[in-house]
Amino acid sequence: MHFLSSFLLSLPLLSLAGHRTRSFGQQHRRAALKARNTTTTYVLEDFYQGQSFLNSSLWTFFDDTDPTAGLVNYQSSADAQSKGLAYVQEDGTTILKVDNTTTLTSGQYRDSVRIATTKSYNGGLFIADFYAMPYGCATWPAFWTVGPNWPNQGEIDIIEGVNLNTHNQITLHSGDDCAIQSTLSSLVSSNSTIGNLQCASSASSNTGCTYIDSDARSYGKGFNQQGGGVYAMEWTNEAIQMWFFSRAHIPSDITNKTPNPSSWGNPAALFSNSGCDIGSHFSDHTITINTDVCGGWTESAFSSSGCSGTCADTVAVASNFDNAQWSINYVATYQS
Ligand SMILES: *[C@@H]1O[C@H](CO)[C@@H](O)[C@H](O)[C@H]1NC(C)=O
Ligand SMILES: *[C@@H]1O[C@H](CO)[C@@H](O)[C@H](O)[C@H]1NC(C)=O
Ligand SMILES: *[C@@H]1O[C@H](CO)[C@@H](O)[C@H](O)[C@H]1NC(C)=O
Ligand SMILES: *[C@@H]1O[C@H](CO)[C@@H](O)[C@H](O)[C@H]1NC(C)=O
User: Which positions carry the signal peptide feature in this UniProt record (predicted)?
Assistant: First the structure.
């Protein structure tokens, strides 16, 4: 359904020689479900807020050519800050935005920002609180984690969408032998449906395995109208799962920094080792926040996601990017 749905890959594309793993049977499924209902005590590891995002020992600004062929000039930290595309407000909120002041001609590239943690993670609980996220025609924002050897070390897309989407799409990309089992659909939020079962990704088949959260508060304008909210992603050897909480419904254990995922109810997405050996497919992930401009998915879904004309013409007009900004409260990581 979502052709070219995610090209958030790291270059260079390396060989797809995946590790062959055994297939995972019923006992693994039960183990995953049991694990899901076990209280895990999480301890705060990293708390990124305010100037943390501009601190080069914690986050780096990616300023190479966009691997997904967007009409975008990702900015260095110095340039992003001098152009007012990355800054911390007086209240401590961090803004990462697309340039919305420069008039371009059709086909020219627009300035934007893509940042990633210097630190790599091999599991844990990741909690991000955003007051607002980018949306609008020609935008492709994402909050995600990814390993260095794509796709064999995996990619976890926690928030992702394009243009005027009114739903979030949660995706895993992996090496061979990793898929969602359709039975998991009964264990997730009633607003979530499986879009694609196959996580294994290659340059020619790169949809990944997906859940669509039809809750309009989960993405874009609907997210921002509620004052944003919190996304949580729990990554263990048994399962990767995500929860979304709109601003008014953030559990107090998250606010208190004593998060207990087993108290949060059904997740928005659940990927378990019933269909994928999580431990061997996902490793050494950095956390990334970016806003792409046009590029693969944005352009292939341009009209189906509410936009008219061409992506390149849309990029030329600065005011089309007035809503293209991340307003970040914090990103926190926890370990058990
Ligand atoms: C989790 O375990 C508790 C205690 O065994 C049980 O009461 C509860 O129904 C379980 N929850 C789920 C979602 O399975
Ligand atoms: C940047 O982060 C490092 C690691 O936490 C810290 O030691 C350093 O003081 C920070 N730099 C600034 C300017 O805050
Ligand atoms: C599903 O989305 C609707 C609309 O935003 C919301 O009212 C409802 O609480 C959501 N249900 C769950 C289980 O999250
Ligand atoms: C750019 O976008 C910001 C954030 O939405 C908005 O406050 C500002 O007025 C816009 N700038 C221009 C020149 O329209």
Answer: 1-17
